[in-house]
């Protein structure tokens, strides 16, 4: 059973940067496709980005493309989300997810393992 724990969220001003981390345990991290989703109040779970098991392939949602970057360190069992140029619309709970599929899927239903989430609040 894979456990995921996010960290790095908090309050920021528009234009600031934050880096989220997601640490994994209980499984073989290097086999997992990792993803970030976010959920704002009264909104559905939104795909943010995904990264392949070896970090060579990634995809990002149009809403964050050019501002957010995913990376991973398999030696540390950790995936990162670097968020630059934050906007108020980025305010949400950010959730880390993992899948045993090698496809970078955007649908949250295909991800088997989830963290509890970390809150990001961006003010103007």
Descriptive tags:
124 residues; mainly beta; 7-stranded mixed β-sheet; 4-stranded antiparallel β-sheet; 0% helix
Classify the helix fraction into a percent range.
Answer: under 10%
Give the overall average pLDDT. 96
Report the principal-axis shape. Answer: globular
Number of helices: 0
Radius of gyration: 13 Å
Notes on the structure:
- The chain has 124 residues and is mainly β.
- Helices cover 0% and strands 50% of the residues.
- The protein contains no helices and eleven strands.
- The chain has strands at 3-7, 10-13, 18-25, 33-39, 45-51, 58-60, 68-73, 78-83, 92-99, 113-114, 118-123.
- The strands form two sheets. Strands 2, 4, 5, 6, 9, 10 and 11 form a seven-stranded mixed β-sheet that branches. A four-stranded antiparallel β-sheet has the order 1-3-8-7, with no helix packed on it.
- Strand 5 (45-51) and strand 6 (58-60) form a beta hairpin.
- It is globular.
- The termini are far apart.
List the helices and strands and how they pair.
Blueprint: E1 3-7, E2 10-13, E3 18-25, E4 33-39, E5 45-51, E6 58-60, E7 68-73, E8 78-83, E9 92-99, E10 113-114, E11 118-123
Parallel strand pairs: 2-11
Antiparallel strand pairs: 1-3, 3-8, 4-5, 4-9, 5-6, 7-8, 9-10, 9-11
Give a quick rundown of the structure.
The protein has 124 residues and is an all-beta fold. 0% of the residues lie in helices and 50% in strands.
